Amino acid sequence: MADTEPQAWYLNSKFPVFWPQCEALTLPEDDFEAYLQRIQERGLENNLNKTDVEGTHGPGDADDDTFTLVSEQPSTTADVRLVLGSMDMCEATENEESAQDGPSSSQDAFMAGLVSHGEPREVDMSHFTMDGKMLTENADFAYRSTNSALVDLFFELEDVVSGPRLLELLNAAWTEDPLATLKLIFNARSIHIGKSSRHTFYRCAGWLATYHPLTLVANLQWLSRPVIEKKVSTKDDKEDSDTEVIEDESDPARFDVRHGVAHGYWKDLLNILALSANGHLTVLSTPRDILNIENQTAGPVRSKEDTREEQTRRHDDAVQAFTSNPTHHALHLKTARLFASQLKTDLALLDNPSDAPKTATISLCAKWAPSPQRFHDKHTTIATSIAEILFPPASFPPFLIPTRETYLRHARESYRRLLTRLRARLDIVERPLTKRAYGDIQYPSVPSLAMRAYAPLFAERDGDRFGEYLAAVKAGTKQISGAVLMPSVLVRDALAAGKRSAGVRSHKKARAFDHGRRVRRGGRRGVGLGRNNNTVLETKARELRDRTLDAQWDTLVRRVKDSGTLESCIAICDVSGSMTYPTFADGTAPIHTAIGLSLLMAEVVAPPFGGAFVTFSARPTVEKVDLTGTLGEKVAAMERSEWGMNTDLVAVFEKLILPMAVENKLTQEQMVKRLFVFSDMQFDAAERGDRWATSFERIEKEYMAAG
């Protein structure tokens, strides 16, 4: 009878799920670390005859706990040197050819002189003392380097830094201080206290994977653990807090903060693994090539055979990487163990909440855990390894699992059901959205990025409830998430909303005029009235979106204020022509960042310097901001300020602050202590005799002279 029963759908699926068995998947932590050390040494032994190429190792390879598979991952440094070397050779060849093509006799001297007449002449710089200085793009003088590899790395660790330059910076910084370099790498990712740059962090992770893989593997856990306080704790807060003391020094949970947040999120682990599986976890690679962060236009529909062939190829590539690349092998095992460990903890809390500490809450691990047959599972088969830890063979009757592949399919299905239970408990906003059950959405628990993405939908489909919620937020009885949104993103949205409103107002005039003509001509009055009704709904939805922006901005301001205080500070905001480009992946430009950060400083700085900013131009002025207005009104007011189209930093000090201080006889205690310059460009050239001094040196001299 049992033989005639149809098999479960997941047993008949063509999706490849098989994965090589590895005992290290479930080893105790100490044994697991020893296992990683063994495969490190084995990797080096297997490739000793291939590691004598210059540049195959990063800094500190003599006694380092790292390994590099030269056969699998080519020498990054060597590749860069080859490219740079070939560029130098090409340039030398071009110079030789142009020298040969130059004037060959005195008969060409006249034409040569005529052609070169009026060209800028080379100035003999030998009598000037440069002292490590350089000309900026705007011809001002600045120091070429900070003389600290760590400071250089922190300053240049942005999305725009090139791969070769990032490699150079990381090598130099690690030589200076490995621990500080590692902290700077995580600061690049840190959403709440760092630069929140995923792609820059992934490229740095690629550098660690190449030169210090065990360091990368050992620190993956800090991407998802709640180790950052949302609010700076006072002495009373610490005394009143209900904390759980963890005695085990090997347990990373001892660093967790109650209601804390993480540097990254669980999906970072999966993204790093997917990059590694595809050979893109290097400092020179572009993560977007694999991760497809932006929505892409759908291509032609593929046949089932083509899709199945692609799935098989990806699966085979993942197995090959796991069995032959020690770095990827370690990353895969560690990622699976981290997910499985947290899911076990969350499941126990779900099933037996009374046994857990009263401060314990279910994490967001299940939300970001890899769903079977979705993107990360397709590229890495990581769902199989997580399922194998959570549901070992002993979890099933022996007759159900005659083969390893059958067992893995049962384990994956059990894992899928576990995710369904935990995600239902988390009340993820996408669940009621897919069911169109808008009345079930709990708006206070919607994350900030989801709120930004879905606010127009909430306003359109659940306008009354959403409006009541926003009113409660304004009254202070409910909260809205927005602390992780960048000021630049909110400013861009506010500017876009303002432009849409202006466009709608013009469009409404045209509609009214057109409707009046139809009424006078005896036209279809019902059509006009219907359009007016639609306009009312559009206006209401637009107002709700604007109120959402205001609420999220207020949340961001409160978060910054809760993190500490700023006194005697003022912002210098650059909105010169260069600030309108480039456009970044999130749709913002440098001008949005400058306005956003300047406005944020105006909001949080204590009086008398709060509520103001300085324009960046040849004739700088101090502009006041009405902090009682909406975000759109404040941004629009800043945009209407008198802006110049250049970046004359010296003018701010020499033509604005110093004359004002001298005229009003201000003391040093009354002077502003710190100025924050928000600009993407270097400063303009000096127009005075002390040309070879930096802007700071010239300003310092004048202020000292004035006392």
Give an overview of the whole structure.
- It is built from 27 helices and six strands.
- It is mainly α.
- Among the domains are: about 440-555, no CATH class; about 570-705, von Willebrand factor, type A domain (Rossmann fold, 3-Layer(aba) Sandwich).
- α22 (about 485-520) packs antiparallel against α23 and α26 packs parallel to α27 (about 695-705).
- The protein starts with 8 loop residues before the first helix and ends with a helix.
- Mean pLDDT is about 80; it is low at about 45-105, about 110-120, about 240-245, about 505-530 and about 685-690.
- It comes from Coniochaeta hoffmannii.
CATH domain class of the domain at 569-705: Alpha Beta
Secondary-structure content class: mainly alpha
Biggest sheet strand line-up: 5-4-3-6
What's the shape?
globular
Alpha-carbon distance between the termini? 99 Å
Mean pLDDT: 79
| Annotated CATH homologous superfamily of the domain at 569-705 | von Willebrand factor, type A domain
Kindly report the CATH topology of the domain at 569-705: Rossmann fold
DSSP strand (E) fraction? under 5%
Computed over alpha carbons, the radius of gyration is: 31 Å
Low-confidence segments, given as residue ranges, are: 44-107, 110-118, 239-243, 504-530, 685-689
* Number of helices in the DSSP assignment: 27
CATH architecture of the domain at 569-705: 3-Layer(aba) Sandwich
Total beta-strand segments: 6
